[in-house]
């Protein structure tokens, strides 16, 4: 579920790329400070997007700082500081906690053992409390093998939206975040078709198109059938962006890049399934 | 907001036997006793079973009416409120109101539900609900307009990275392409002429 909301760096202006990287590095350093150096590994594009969106409607001035980065250790990097980065940090940690919970529940063998070694203090009680009803519903869908992908995606969208509603600035874009949540779930499920089929994991698309499965081309066929619905979702996301873009104080271009270039690019990769991982 | 036929997974106009079979199947699948060791999941299963029971009872009660298209005044009032909520962007509020409508075979009900699905980016459901409303009342201008708008936006997709494929948005269609290449050929010819 992680890493689908990314930008297309080729389409950035140079200064936009610098600002995007400042957010990215800002979350990374803030993670290291709060949760130790290894937590840098849980940094994600999605958390960066939340931070950027949070600042888009913020009234206060954005603050920059200079921080030394271990990679490479000689030069200092520009980072963003402040509330938006804290939200991104918490969101990263929360995403990681969920992932650990998921592994504890599902898999066995080495991953299962490792997950217990990684037990850390839970910090995002707030996020957990807000999103619990939706997480439960998603789990319920998995346990009962819900065959309609849209139904599960709806719950995932509400889950993303519930987190957005916890912040005043993000609330204005809650409809867009709901749609993005849906999109992420569906893209992730389509991306993992082969993997889930082999490992017999739950994937709503495999249940919806049970009769198609078996042939070499079956995964491609499923993707072709679902393309229209994902395209439609993308258009709806862009429409919602158009509704709120005039209220944005800053970062408008960064968000535009993610929605109009980055996400379509991810989509293209999933549908054409090049060998490189999205 | 759910359509009782959809909850049970049967088509419109299914026979009593079909409805009963579908009902039994679902009750068996979601029986709360299956989730005895997990209280959260058990609650959700109970909710689901309640929803299935409601849909089943609704269909049993309304099976013989056929589709009566008369709208009673109470429903009409709710429909007006739903429209206001949708305009104001409160989709969840609108959904909650739609559940209370007693006559769920009304085209207006399908239209408004379809509109909400449209806004939520729910492609296949929006398609079937809006089409149903449109087919039930083809003379209604509004249904027709929204259904067309839906079809347009599902085809239109602004996507600059897909310019390699002319069938996708952003690419040029063949006619313009031929025209342009024609122009280009003439321009090249012109340059050559001057050179010679």
UniProtKB/TrEMBL annotation, chain A:
Pfam families per record: DUF5685
Question: What superkingdom heads the lineage?
Answer: Bacteria
User: Which InterPro entries does the annotation name?
Assistant: DUF5685 (IPR043740)
Indicate what this protein is called per its UniProt record.
Answer: Uncharacterized protein
**Provenance organism:** Mesoaciditoga lauensis
Automatic annotation (TrEMBL), chain B:
List the InterPro entries hit by this protein, alphabetically. Answer: DnaJ_domain, J_dom_sf, TPR-like_helical_dom_sf, TPR_rpt
CDD domains assigned: DnaJ
Kindly provide the name given to this protein in its UniProt entry: Molecular chaperone DnaJ
Taxonomy of origin reads: Bacteria, Thermotogati, Thermotogota, Thermotogae, Mesoaciditogales
Q: Which residues form the J domain?
A: 3-83
Keyword entries, A-Z: TPR repeat
Q: Does the keyword Nucleotide-binding apply?
A: no
Top-rank lineage group of the source organism: Bacteria
- Coiled-coil spans are none
- The TPR repeats lie at 107-140
Report any Pfam family annotated for this entry: DnaJ
The cellular component terms of Gene Ontology attached to this UniProt record, alphabetical and capped at eight, are: cytoplasm
- Give the Gene Ontology MF terms in alphabetical order: protein folding chaperone; protein-folding chaperone binding; unfolded protein binding
Keyword RNA-binding set for record: no
């Amino acid at each position: 579920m992680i890493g689908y909301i990314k930008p297309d760096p080729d389409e950035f202006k140079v200064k936009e790329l610098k600002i995007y990287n400042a957010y990215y590095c800002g979350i990374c350093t803030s993670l290291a400070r709060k949760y130790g150096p290894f937590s840098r590994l849980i940094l994600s594009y999605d958390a960066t997007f939340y931070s950027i969106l949070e600042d888009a409607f913020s009234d206060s001035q954005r603050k920059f700082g200079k921080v030394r980065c271990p990679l490479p250790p000689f030069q200092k990097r520009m980072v963003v500081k402040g509330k938006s980065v804290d939200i991104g940090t918490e969101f990263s940690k929360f995403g990681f906690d969920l992932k650990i919970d998921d592994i504890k529940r599902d898999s066995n063998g080495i991953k299962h053992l490792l997950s217990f070694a990684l037990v850390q203090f839970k910090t995002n009680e707030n996020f957990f409390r807000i999103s619990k009803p939706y997480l439960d519903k998603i789990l319920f869908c998995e346990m009962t093998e819900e065959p309609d992908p849209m139904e599960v995606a709806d719950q995932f969208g509400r889950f993303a939206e519930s987190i957005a509603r916890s912040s005043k600035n993000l609330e204005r874009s809650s409809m867009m975040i709901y749609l993005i949540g849906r999109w992420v779930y569906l893209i992730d499920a389509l991306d993992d078709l082969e993997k889930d089929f082999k490992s017999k994991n739950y994937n709503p698309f495999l249940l919806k198109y049970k009769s198609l499965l078996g042939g070499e081309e079956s995964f491609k066929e499923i993707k072709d059938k679902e393309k229209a619905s994902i395209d439609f979702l993308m258009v709806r996301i862009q429409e919602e962006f158009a509704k709120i873009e005039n209220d944005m104080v800053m970062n408008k271009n960064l968000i535009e890049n993610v929605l109009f270039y980055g996400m379509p690019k991810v989509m293209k990769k999933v549908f054409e399934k090049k060998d490189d991982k999205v | 907001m759910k359509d009782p036929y959809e909850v049970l997974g049967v088509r419109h106009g299914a026979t009593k036997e079909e409805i009963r079979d579908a009902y039994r199947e679902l009750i068996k699948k979601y029986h709360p006793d299956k989730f005895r060791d997990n209280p959260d999941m058990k609650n959700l299963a109970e909710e689901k079973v309640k929803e299935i029971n409601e849909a089943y009872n609704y269909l049993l009660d309304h099976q013989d009416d056929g589709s009566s298209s008369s709208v009673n005044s109470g429903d009409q009032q709710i429909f007006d409120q739903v429209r206001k909520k949708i305009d104001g962007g409160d989709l969840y509020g609108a959904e909650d109101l739609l559940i209370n409508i007693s006559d769920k075979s009304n085209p207006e009900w399908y239209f408004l539900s379809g509109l909400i699905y449209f806004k939520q980016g729910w492609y296949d459901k929006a398609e079937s609900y809006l089409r149903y409303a449109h087919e039930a009342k083809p003379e209604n201008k509004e249904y027709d307009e929204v259904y067309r708008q839906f079809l347009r936006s599902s085809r239109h997709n602004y996507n600059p990275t897909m310019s390699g494929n002319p069938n996708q948005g952003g690419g040029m269609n063949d006619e313009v392409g031929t025209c342009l290449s024609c122009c280009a050929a003439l321009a090249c010819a012109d340059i050559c002429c001057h050179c010679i």
